[in-house]
Write a structure and sequence with these properties.
The chain has 386 residues and is of the alpha/beta class. The protein contains seven helices and 16 strands. It has a single domain, classed as 3-Layer(aba) Sandwich (Aminopeptidase). The strands form two sheets. Strands 1-3-9-7-10-16-14-15-6-5 form a ten-stranded mixed beta sheet, with helices on both faces. Strands 2, 4, 8, 11, 12 and 13 form a six-stranded mixed beta sheet that branches. The N terminus is likely disordered.
Length: 386
């Protein structure tokens, strides 16, 4: 009963916030790994997925194209009170606003158990064949949907990223979520409910929880991380990428050392009414597969440094496949922007699909964090900055 009253109170508060068109200024919290972490979603901005080519016969709704013109007003981020170098292990700097907290229970996680929507089928996406695909020298593949020849892009993939990386706790990585409310099924029943739209504003059940899992692994490895946990795609979905771009710029202004920005999403893959869940077994446990998207500029998108993103994507893909064989789907290299013009290490990572369980997605987040930590450690060592 008390919990119901609490939720009603929060919903009323949320309505008041939305009606007034008001959001409070987000605050930054430094959370030492292993300590008590505050629960608040963060600030990223949104645009909606259109659809990228998927492995046949399934269709996927990964975001595509440039940001929409619509936007949602976002608050300016407060600078931290004092310049602090986090001790080793590193701290997780969470960014959130009171307005975002007020929306936590605006769209409740409501997965029914009728199974009325259709089937969910687990599928492992193994190495692909065909002219669109080529393999990286040290593991993983690339799906090339651009004007680049496979031979030229393979040569490009071998170029080492030029990123000023350090492993002394200085913030190096930004994790954010353009489509924060994307979610997963609660348990593996093989069916989904027709009324469940695979979205929720509850941060422990949406992409924020996956970002938390990544951030914890980075911090444990001594790599500084900022996690923007803001809800960007609710109540207004249009303009999400414009909003997340504002967040990225604000964070980079406060932490100019950040050179990697990862937009953590989940894919949507279906074949008619059948939902496909990409899975891999890693260390005896089932995980969602991931797919890295690295955008390419066709000359009209204002992304002069897109190749630098691809260099980093190739290293991360190879490391992830070396550590966890079968964990990745091919990198999608296509004409996409996704705010990847803002840093030289900008990527979008799809973690599973709507058919994966939350547990599988969170485990995938742990694995991404471990692979990312190892990638950064190697690159920093090679540059003499470790």
């Amino acid at each position: 009963m008390k919990d119901s009253i609490k939720r009603i109170t929060l919903l009323c508060g949320t309505g008041a916030v939305l009606l007034a068109g008001w959001r409070t200024v987000p605050v930054m919290e430094a959370v030492t790994i292993g300590g008590t972490q505050n629960e608040a979603p963060a600030m990223a901005q949104a645009q909606e997925p259109a659809g990228h080519p998927a492995e046949p016969p399934a269709q996927t709704d990964a975001p595509s194209g440039d940001p929409e013109s619509g936007s949602v007003t976002q608050p300016h981020l407060l600078a931290p009170a004092a310049e602090q170098k986090p001790d080793y292990p590193a701290e997780i700097i969470n960014i959130e606003s009171d307005g975002s907290k007020a929306m936590w229970y605006s769209r409740l996680y409501q997965q029914g158990d009728s199974g009325s929507g259709g089937d969910i089928i687990d599928r492992h996406f193994a190495a692909q064949s065909g002219s669109l695909f080529f393999s990286l020298p040290n593991g993983g593949q690339v799906r090339n949907s651009t004007f680049w020849s496979n031979a030229d892009l393979l040569a490009e993939s071998k170029i080492m990223p030029e990123l000023p990386l350090r492993t002394d706790g200085t913030p190096m990585v930004l994790i954010y979520h353009t489509h924060t409310t994307e979610s997963y099924v609660a348990e593996k029943t093989g069916r989904y409910d027709d009324s469940f739209n695979f979205r929720t504003t509850e941060p422990d059940k949406n992409m924020v929880s996956v970002g938390d899992a990544i951030a914890e692994q980075l911090a444990a490895a001594g790599i500084g991380v900022v996690h923007a946990r803001e809800i960007h795609d609710f109540p207004v979905w249009t303009g999400s990428y414009s909003n997340s771009a504002e967040t990225i710029r604000s964070v980079l202004a406060q932490y100019p050392e950040i050179c990697i920005a990862l937009d953590i999403h989940r894919d949507a893959i279906s074949d008619g009414k059948t939902v496909i869940a990409p899975i891999a077994e890693v260390n005896g446990k089932q995980s969602a597969q991931i797919m890295i998207i690295s955008g390419c500029d066709d000359g009209t998108m204002g992304m002069p440094d897109y190749r630098k993103n691809f260099h980093f994507a190739s290293r991360l893909q190879e490391t992830a496949e070396t550590m966890f064989p079968g964990f990745t789907r091919p990198i999608l290299f296509d004409y996409r922007k996704y705010n990847q013009d803002l840093t030289a290490g900008s990527l979008l990572i799809e973690v599973g699909s709507q058919g994966n369980t939350l547990e599988e997605a969170q485990y995938a987040g742990e694995l991404v964090g471990q692979a990312l930590s190892e990638t950064i450690r190697k690159l920093a060592a090679d540059s003499g900055e470790a």
